[in-house]
Amino acid sequence: MFTPHTETEKKEMLNAIGVQKLADLFQDVPAKYRFPHLNLPDPLTEMEVAAEVGHFASANESTRDLVSFLGAGAYHHYIPAAVDSLLRRGEFFTAYTPYQPEISQGTLQAIFEYQSLIAALTGMDVSNASHYDGATAAAEAVIMAYHNFRGKRPRMVLSPSLNPQYRATLRTYTQGYNLDLVGDGKDADLFAGPDGLISLIDNNTALVMVQYPDFFGRVYDYTQLAKKAHEMGALVCVAINPTALGLFKSPGEMGADIVIGEGQPLGIPLSFGGPYLGIFAVRKEFARKISGRLVGESVDSRGNRAFVLTLTAREQHIRREKASSNICSNQGLMALASTIYMSLLGKQGFRQMAELCYHKAHYAAEKLAAIPGYSLCFNSIYFHEFVVCCPKPVAEINEHLLEHGIIGGFDLSEEYPSLPNHMLLAVTEMNSREEIDLLCEVLAEVSHE
Amino acid sequence: MSEKTIFELSSPGRQGVRFPAPDVTPAELPDESLIRADLPLPELAEVDVIRHFTALSKLNYCVDSGLYPLGSCTMKYNPRINEDMARLPGFAFTHPLQPIETIQGSLALMFQMQEWLKEISGFEGVTLEPAAGAQGELVGVLIIRAYHQSRGDTKRTKILIPDSAHGTNPATSAMSGFEVLPVPSDARGNVDLEALKAVCDDTLAGLMLTNPNTLGLFDEHVLELIDIVHKAGGLVYGDGANLNAIMGVVRPGDLGIDVMHFNLHKTFSTPHGGGGPGSGPVGVAKHLVDFLPDPVVGIIEDATEEMPPLYGFVTPAKTIGRIKSFAGHFGVIVRAYTYVLMHGAEGLRDISEMAVLNANYLLSKIRHAYTLPYNRTCMHEFVLEGVWPDVADVHALDIAKRLMDYDYHPPTNYFPLIVHEALMIEPTETESKQTLDAFAETLLKIAEEAHTTPELLKEAPHKTPIGRVDEVRAARDLVLCCWIPEEPVK
User: Fold this and answer.
1) Is residue A41 classed as helix, strand or coil in its secondary structure?
2) Which site among B367, B455, B466, B473 would you substitute to test the A interface, given the most A Cβ atoms closer than 10 Å to its Cβ?
3) Which residue, B293, B326, B341, sits at the end of a domain?
């Protein structure tokens, strides 16, 4: 379809090679299995494909068709038109990894700016060029901490209010390690906050990992926790939602050693779960221990500022089996999207957007809590997500909401059996007051039925 | 000349995007000890942002500008229809945790893609979850580990990796808790079977095979090799990064390979995006289906006369667990789906045939001027030595840099490690005979320059936006951010 060869050219090329026919090029393939019949649909033209794939897209009901209060790790935000307009430049999206700096300064400088913006947002010194997503960044943080202590501190203290998918992912990643993962058992006290973790930190602890705002939307100051962890010689990793950092103090100010997070809210579409962006930033003493790509500033042979991939000696293609991670890509285009997004919003826009989320979420939470049968589960400071205790199982309520064109919140009962009938709702700048009022109206109906 | 950074372009008071005033009564903000005093982001107008990134984009080489012969990377043309499809609102604005009845379109597409990848590769099960090839490898090796453990076979701690395998393989095995042992190649570039037999024992967990390998050669004893590993109780991992050579030509599953990853961003034309996102689905043979990561897409209610099937997420019985958030790089999967739909069986075979034709044709045009370490029919790529005995001072790197002066992206160089001064060239199937002829001429001209005016190569590139970069300085005086960090706040 996209091969430009004419029949005449094919013949000329085969002649130049010195073979009769195409099949002659595949003599090394075992004859028994050569040229199998593949049972695939007949090829379609572009026009037909557009219609066919369009059918699948229209079979979905998106956040454009429905009102959504679903977050739990992926968020519906406004993406300025300029973001995608720039992403669609072939110079960006059809380029490879910038291994050749002379002809890749565009990608390299954009990543350098991404690293700088993430450092600014998180209050850290160094950001890498990104990991796959928040969950894999969490796994890489655990592995980094493990190697930081040369495997001698096997304990990792995990907050029970760290995203369940992050905790599952880091467990899968580290099954070949002999780790002692504690803190997030089914019996963990979900109301204890950061203080509940302090007693678990011992001198075998490499890392304490918490989320900010946590999975339930709560905002805690982790300064004391970080202090206690450091006293025991452990590192502290804070998993962030970048949106919240437009309003709340940065994890760097609280003493975090590692900051990871899901960068999707920074101008990346929901896209049914991916591709997203794994934020990974550290204090400068860990710069050489970070896994994944890094771009550094240098000079070229003509004396000008130039950017280049650096510290590559840590990476899998050089260090091979001694590398701490096998990652060999970054989320290049997603990192670029977030760079453009943060540049467009800037100091003021980012704060405005974060405050909008905060105000609307608080309006919604207060109004919901006033409906008979509903109450807020936690009595903590929260940002744009909160947990509501409902009069009925969440699955049942969500079915009812959907009939009114509303995607309800995340049902916590499966991940947290101690929170039956608990719904995690997210409110962003995309939710209007009318939508929130409609949600409350329908929820009030449900409780009467 | 260099483009200012986004921070240098900042002008206090500017703002590129504005948001509406709150339509609710503003809530009280929490105590100021929790509130951020300063958000040190730059301040620009929208036009500043557009011009800045447009200027940056012009400093990039890309597939749209020309041939990108990076061996092992499969830098083929990225069809534009893929981009439109991934951005359809029904896909782009769908939350991954929505009720399944509202996302049947996405799930059906994913299910179909799993089925197609099974058909193309000859496997029994496929997961679309891995984010990239390297993560697919990790999944594959963790599956091998889980398989042996499920049988109580815990002494299998060793993974064999041929020296012609991809560079990520050793790191993946080590990351999964295995000991890594290399296996040498023979004089024809195949895995050395005698050396292989010597290290196959009951501690063998598996072997990671790249076939065609990084020399661009299809192993002539692949069936025997797989049999040796299986007889020792090991499993064979197939690195699918080179699948572009063999679609419709041979199915890795038919050869007896147990588990393999696909690179949708190589074989299936999804863009590389300047380093990502990729997508690395994994296919497995029947005995490994239960170990696939959580979740896969399955049919949870069969179709009836009136209703299509209901698709949903399913957790495999002995799953290795979740490996990332949600269920894969869906936006990338849509692009790959679109690509397969445009090709069908014949089109996919045509891709591989033209990829192999192009590589062999290009090789035939330049082989007299370069040293070819393995004199065989190549697959979709080939490896040359970028060095001549009579001009000792010129290296593969110099050839690579000189190519930029002729507006080409250089080939992969210094890989694979088993070839001295390697230049690994993969033209891909989307290049025309005319493009290959022009590129061959340039390679011949550079070979001539190496002998007549070697300084042209040593000092190259001359015509690029910047000259060679001081990489030592970058690693020594680390500057990873627009400002030199102050002492971190305690």
Assistant:
1) coil
2) B466
3) B341
Residue A391 banded pLDDT, cuts 50, 70, 90: very high
**DSSP 8-state assignment for residue B368:** T
Helix (H) or strand (E) holding A120: helix A105-122
3-class DSSP state of B16: coil
Residue A45 lies in a domain: no
Mean pLDDT of chain B: 95
Determine the average pLDDT of the residues in A365-369. Answer: 98
Tally: H helices and E strands in chain B? 14, 12
- Partners of A96 on chain B (C-beta within 8 Å) are 68, 70, 73, 75, 272, 274-275, 409
Edge-to-edge strands, sheet with A258-262: A126-127, A278-282, A258-262, A235-240, A205-212, A155-158, A180-182
What length is written for chain A? 449
Span A119-138, average pLDDT = 97
| Whole-number Å distance between alpha carbons of A172 and A161 | 18
Residue at token pair 């095979």: B209
Residues 6+ apart with CB under 8 A from B395: B386, B387, B421
Inter-chain CB proximity A402 and B172 less than 8 Å:
no
> Rounded to a whole number, what is the distance in Å from the CA of A381 to chain B's nearest CA?
7
Specify the number of domains making up chain A. Answer: 2
Among candidates B395, B394, B426, which has minimal Cα distance to B412?
B426
Residue A31 reports pLDDT greater than 60: yes
Same domain, residue pair B180 and B316: yes
Query: Does one domain contain both B277 and B371?
Result: no
- For A301-334, give the DSSP string: TTS-EEEEE--GGGSHHHHGGGSS-------HHH
Tell me the HSE value of A2 on the side-chain side, using a 13 A CA sphere. 25
Rounded Cα distance, A106 and A112, in Å: 10
- Report A:45-74 residues touching B (Cβ under 8 A): 45-46, 49-50, 52-64, 66, 68, 70, 72-74
- Chain A hits for B123, Cβ within 8 Å: none
- Residue B489 above 50 pLDDT? no
Domain match, B429 and B449 both: yes
For A394, the token pair is: 């969440």
Tell me if residue B206 falls in helix, strand or coil.
strand
What ipTM goes with this model?
A: 0.97
Contact between B296 and B277 under an 8 Å Cβ cutoff? The reply is no
Same domain, A421 and A312: no
Q: Could you tell me the residue range of the domain that residue B274 belongs to?
A: 81-341
Backbone region of residue B165 per phi and psi (left: phi > 0; alpha: psi in -120 to 50; beta: other values): beta
- CB-based contact A419:A393 (threshold 8 Å): no
When divided into structural domains, chain B yields a total of 2
- Domain C-terminal end among B341, B372, B397: B341
pTM above 0.90, yes or no: yes
